[in-house]
């Protein structure tokens, strides 16, 4: 997706540990026009597929998924929670996710009422690095007896293992921008 790549080239900042910061348009301040184009592109990529719900993970996935939903006939968006919450129902599906950016393991949960057997679920997230977040979401989907239609990623770090981890699970991965490498402050795409 050329518009997204241009945004990454001009506004992305490379940080230590192979982290790409896109706080200017995706992870802190959000460019809603760009997010709408992202929504349209995911719709195109998954055209013809039945999708009942979108599943993402807090926090950065939520805003993206909410806009993507509008291009899938306003289907519900469910976000897995990382934070321990007294409000969360006792009946939950739960899995562990190693956070790439926070270097910490989270217990990630979804209330059992919000993922159901037989549902077709599209996973949406901002980044794919080692695949831990997306793999955790697939685990929640499987626990519920639902089915993953695919994983839609805004920015894939193609030099990490995420894609192969997910493809081993037999799931389709669609990424809108795939990074080949980051060198001397510059981003190169595949
Ligand atoms: P994974 O679980 O695939 O290793 O990492 C994906 C998660 O880590 C995403 O949900 C994203 O929030 C975060 N992440 C991984 N790499 C980056 C990065 O380079 N930049 C930013 N902003 N987030 C990242």
How would you sum up this structure in a few lines?
With 190 residues, the protein is α/β, with parallel strands linked by helices. It has five helices and ten strands; from the N terminus they run αββαβαββββαβαββ. The strands form three sheets. A six-stranded mixed β-sheet has the order 4-3-7-8-9-10, sandwiched between helices. It has a two-stranded antiparallel ribbon with strand order 1-2. The protein has a two-stranded antiparallel sheet with strand order 5-6.
Number of strands: 10
SS-based class: alpha/beta
User: What gyration radius follows from the Cα positions, in whole Å?
Assistant: 16 Å
Order of helices and strands: HEEHEHEEEEHEHEE
**Average pLDDT for all residues:** 95
Question: Could you describe the 3D structure shown?
Answer:
The chain is an alpha/beta fold. 28% of the residues lie in helices and 35% in strands. The chain has helices at residues 2-11, 32-45, 60-69, 132-143, 162-168; strands spanning 13-15, 19-21, 53-57, 77-80, 92-99, 104-111, 120-128, 147-157, 173-183, 186-189. The strands form three sheets. Strands 4-3-7-8-9-10 form a six-stranded mixed β-sheet, sandwiched between helices. A hairpin with a 4-residue loop joins strand 5 and strand 6. Bound molecules: guanosine-5'-monophosphate. Guanosine-5'-monophosphate is lined by residues 19-22, 27, 60, 100-101, 125-133, 162.
Secondary structure elements and pairings:
Blueprint: H1 2-11, E1 13-15, E2 19-21, H2 32-45, E3 53-57, H3 60-69, E4 77-80, E5 92-99, E6 104-111, E7 120-128, H4 132-143, E8 147-157, H5 162-168, E9 173-183, E10 186-189
Parallel strand pairs: 3-4, 3-7, 7-8, 8-9
Antiparallel strand pairs: 1-2, 5-6, 9-10
Helix pairs in contact: 2-3
């Amino acid at each position: 997706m050329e518009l997204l790549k241009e945004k990454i080239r001009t506004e992305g900042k490379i940080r230590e540990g192979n982290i790409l910061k896109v706080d200017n348009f995706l992870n802190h301040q959000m460019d809603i026009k760009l997010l709408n184009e992202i929504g349209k592109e995911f719709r195109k990529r998954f055209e013809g597929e039945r999708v009942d719900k979108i599943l993402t993970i807090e926090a950065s996935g939520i805003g993206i998924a909410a806009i993507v939903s509008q291009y899938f006939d306003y289907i519900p968006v469910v976000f897995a929670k990382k934070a321990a919450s007294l409000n969360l129902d006792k009946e939950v599906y739960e899995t562990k996710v190693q956070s790439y950016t926070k270097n910490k393991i989270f217990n990630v949960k979804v209330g059992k009422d919000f993922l159901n057997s037989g549902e077709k679920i599209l996973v949406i997230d901002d980044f794919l690095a080692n695949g831990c977040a997306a793999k955790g979401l697939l685990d929640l989907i499987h626990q519920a007896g639902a089915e993953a239609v695919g994983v839609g990623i805004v920015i894939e770090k193609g030099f990490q293992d995420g894609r192969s981890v997910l493809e081993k699970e037999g799931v389709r991965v669609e990424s809108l921008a795939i990074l080949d490498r980051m060198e001397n402050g510059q981003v190169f795409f595949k």
